[in-house]
Automatic annotation (TrEMBL):
Coiled coil: none annotated. Keywords: ATP-binding, Cytoplasm, Kinase, Magnesium, Metal-binding, Nucleotide-binding, Transferase. It holds the Pfam family Acetate_kinase. Catalyzes the formation of acetyl phosphate from acetate and ATP. Can also catalyze the reverse reaction. It is found in: Cytoplasm. This is Acetate kinase. It comes from Tepiditoga spiralis. One of its GO terms (molecular function) is magnesium ion binding. SUPFAM superfamilies: Actin-like ATPase domain. Its cofactor is Mg(2+); Mn(2+). The lineage of its organism: Bacteria, Thermotogati, Thermotogota, Thermotogae, Petrotogales. Mg(2+). Can also accept Mn(2+). PROSITE patterns: ACETATE_KINASE_1, ACETATE_KINASE_2.
């Protein structure tokens, strides 16, 4: 079964074509700067990267071109587009409506549109991708996989904010959490690596990328996560502040003469590592400068690690124990120093011992704790596209079985 995975942003489309009989990636790429001058496609096939500069006015034009590349004599991997059996779409927000992946029909699309108020930057872009793909591939099933769905298992005590309950009743103001597809993949893979049933494990999954969140996963179910009503809550990130006292918003509105929207933009785009260092949002820059003795970068890096450690500690408490702490995503997978400093400076009391040699690893599944460490410390590279393709395959096969009955 061949499955196309699409992750549509407001001006980009990430794609992967997978052969799900072997879970092999046949081709992948990124359409960038859609509707903006300088649009291009970075297309990868057979280990080669091709950059194709091309005017791309909208998502449909971009996707149409990507589909033509799949059957192209030079870049192609398919004889015909009919080989594509289904399409899996990443959708950021499923609200309380979607606790698992679903086959997309008109009702589902309407519900996604209704939920756009919860993710005004993301859902409309995801929907544009879905509309373009269903237009171009109308005869195959399209499946929606939601970033929030995995966290729908959180109990009320985790997802309700202690604010007047009517705001939850009226507007569904609550914690939703994000990166759910990544946290779910990491939990499953961790159980496989440890040779255990995920139902028997308490896992703290640390998705530490430019956007970052931590999830407490008990028995395979998310029971808490650091991102909240929006992805702004939680850890200090590349450009996001993470947790702050909400009274700061009103203070800045008054003192700086800003609108609330402007303050939220500052908290999303100009805060975090960028805000603290005034220069860098990329952790590689901050790490390099911190190691070279730059005080500002060292402080920013300390804050970054400290917040991660605080969440790990709080989730160890909220699950009343933890078996494995797992690092994933850009920084989590690629920064041995961050893992080492967090383990050594903050996690010793849990009986965690890091093996520095094993920890000297980037982007590779590894148990980085010592044999005698009470809790496993691990690196598990995430694979959201594979998870989306697996869900898509499962739903398509289930539908086929139901049709047979
Ligand atoms: P992501 O959002 O998962 O793509 O992660 C992006 C982040 O990963 C950026 O802040 C990168 O600087 C960071 N990153 C990638 N490679 C490294 C590395 N070798 N050391 C530290 N951070 C890294």
């Amino acid at each position: 079964m061949k499955i196309l995975v699409i992750n549509a942003g407001s001006s980009s489309i990430k794609y992967q074509l997978l052969n799900m009989d072997t879970e092999e990636v046949l081709s992948m790429g990124l359409v960038e700067r859609i509707g903006i001058e300088g649009s291009r496609i970075v297309h990868r096939v057979n280990g080669e990267k091709h950059i194709i500069e091309k005017e791309i006015q909208d998502h449909e034009v971009g996707l149409k071109y990507v589909l033509s590349l799949f059957t192209d004599s030079k870049y192609g991997v398919l004889k015909s587009l009919e080989e594509i059996d289904a399409v899996g779409h990443r959708v950021v927000h499923g609200g309380e409506k979607f606790a698992s992946s679903v086959r997309i029909n008109d009702d589902v699309l309407n519900t996604m549109e209704m939920l756009s108020f919860l993710a005004p930057l993301h859902n409309p872009a995801n929907i544009m991708g879905i509309k373009a793909a269903t237009e171009l591939l109308p005869n195959v099933p399209h499946i929606g996989v939601f970033d929030t769905a995995f966290h729908q298992s959180m109990p009320e005590k985790s997802y309700l904010y202690a604010i007047p309950y009517e705001y939850y009743e009226k507007y569904k103001v609550r914690r939703y959490g994000f990166h759910g597809t990544s946290h779910r993949y990491v939990a499953q893979r961790t159980a496989e690596i440890l040779g255990k049933d995920v139902k028997d494990l308490k896992i703290i999954s640390c998705h530490i990328g430019n956007g970052a969140s931590i999830a407490a996963i008990d028995g395979g179910k998310s029971v808490d996560t650091s991102m909240g009503f929006t992805p702004l809550e939680g850890l200090a990130m590349g450009t996001r502040s993470g947790d702050i006292d909400p009274a700061i918003v009103d203070f800045l509105i008054k003192e700086e003469g800003l609108t609330s929207k402007e303050v939220i933009t500052i908290l999303n785009k100009k805060s975090g590592m960028l805000g603290l260092t005034k220069k860098y949002s990329d952790m590689r820059d901050i790490e390099d400068n911190a190691i070279a003795g730059d005080k500002v970068c060292r402080t920013a890096f300390d804050i970054y690690e400290y917040k991660i450690a605080k969440y790990i500690g709080s989730y160890a408490a909220s699950m009343n124990g933890v078996d494995a702490i797992v690092f994933t995503a850009g920084v989590g997978e690629n920064s041995p120093i961050m893992r080492e400093e967090i383990a050594e400076n903050y996690l010793g009391y849990l009986g965690i011992n890091i093996n520095k040699e094993k920890n000297n690893v980037r982007g590779k599944e590894t148990i980085v704790s010592t044999e005698d460490s009470k809790i496993k410390l691990m690196v598990v590279p995430t694979n959201e596209e594979l998870m989306i393709a697996r869900d898509t395959k499962e739903i398509v096969e289930k539908n086929l079985d139901e049709l047979k009955l």
